[in-house]
Amino acid sequence: VDGIAPEFEGLPLLGFTRRKPEDKDGLYPTVSTCIGQSVLIGSGYKAYARDQHEHFKMGFKLPPASEVETWAMPKDKDLNTCPIATGDVLTCVYTAQGRIQFWRNASKIMDFDTGRPVDPKEEYYAVVDVCFTAGTLTVLPPQSPE
DSSP letters of the chain? Predict the structure, then answer.
């Protein structure tokens, strides 16, 4: 995290999509949690997954689980215990078994089983949406687990 916007709270959205980032119409969804063929985590202290290739077009209602599946932290969990700060290293891990995890420095903040194992025949591309909270981020190269 290179800079934060203290007026906002919450986490940025991190994850992966199988949609190739090509410079053409339809690259960006209206709402980042609705990206086609994606597994995402962070914003709203939730995880999101969409299997369909096309982005879901959000209307006035939340998308049904058949379009964008969502997992949330338990209601009794204190979600204000992990504010981000300049210098933090945020990590998104998508395991071969289909778990998606959000780490802040050396602490695992969230961990959800999406039921979507990684397909070794597919290519995955990083997704980052700062969601106003993190003013600027730098994407770091992958590191081996310690």
Answer: --EE-TT--S--EEEEESS---SSTT-S-SSGGG-TTEEEE-GGGEEEEE-SSSPP---SSPPPTTTSEEEE--TTS-GGG----TT--EEEEE-TTSEEEEEETTEEEEEEE-S----TTS--EEEEE-TTTEEE--PPPP----
Residue 42 to residues 33, 67, 121, Cα–Cα distance (Å) = 10, 19, 26
Tens of pLDDT, residues 76-122: 666 555 678 889 999 999 999 999 999 999 899 999 999 999 999 99
Tens-digit pLDDT profile for residues 37-79: 999 999 889 999 999 999 888 888 888 888 899 999 886 666 5
CA distances from 86 to 15, 51, 66, 83, 128 (A): 20, 34, 37, 10, 17
Residue 126 amino acid letter: A
15 pLDDT more than 70: yes
- How many other CB atoms sit within 10 Å of the CB of residue 48? 27
